[in-house]
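Typical record was shown:
=====
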Amino acid sequence: MNMSNQMANEHTLDSKPRGSQITVVSAKGGAGTTSLLANIAWGLSQQQGMNVACTDLDFITGDLDLQFSVQANNALVEMLQFPDCLEPVIYQRSGLKVNDDLYVFTGYQSGFEQHFWPDVLSMQKVSRFCLQQATHLLWDVPAFCLRDKVGFDTLNSSDIRVVIVEPTLASIRSTNQLLAKLEQSSSTRTLVVLNHTKPEALSLITANDVASTLSRKFDVEIPYSPADMRGGNALGVLAINQKGRNAKALKKLVSLVSGEPEVSKSRLFSWLKGA
């Protein structure tokens, strides 16, 4: 290792992170994890003084770039392959700039063959590096990543874990198993989000059924709104920027992640009345 790489490595390991790591995951694929992560990242980036980095660990079929209408690259894989060479300038050169306070990191590979998968130490170094540049780092952890140590170490080393569940038997069962395992790490906040991926009136499983089976209340419930969510996938128009119940639920989720309490209309009206 040459002198410059050694200095970069010492900088990555010794410098103190300035922000929080947030992992968004579903125990069963197809629950809308990437769409929700994109909306959370955007919402956080709109808060004063916040700089956000979001990353996608699905190197084959990931579509985080489409949510923001940016051109994906393979830079995240290179960062994970050579974590000892990371320097501050690499952050801006490797990240896809969505706005001044939001960068997206992807490692999408051509074809359907995955030639690289990171180890735990590389993930830790890249996470630490990003948190020296950003106030929030979001990892999109696909369900298949939970099969090895990389996924669970990322979850357990996070400051906040956002677990997405949809009202299906398979998702409920897998989420129950995941939450039971995550209980072993009590120092991390875990938010459970119910995402309605089909019309609630047509679902045989109600929100109360899901909550009862999981033995806990949801922190946020995302209503079924295909037009809003489809806008992100097809046009890069995020649901959080639309009007209606969907955007309201997403903004509530952002406030829970950031720790900033929402001001309800009733509280606001009471304040105005008493002013």
Summary: The longest strand covers residues 20-26.
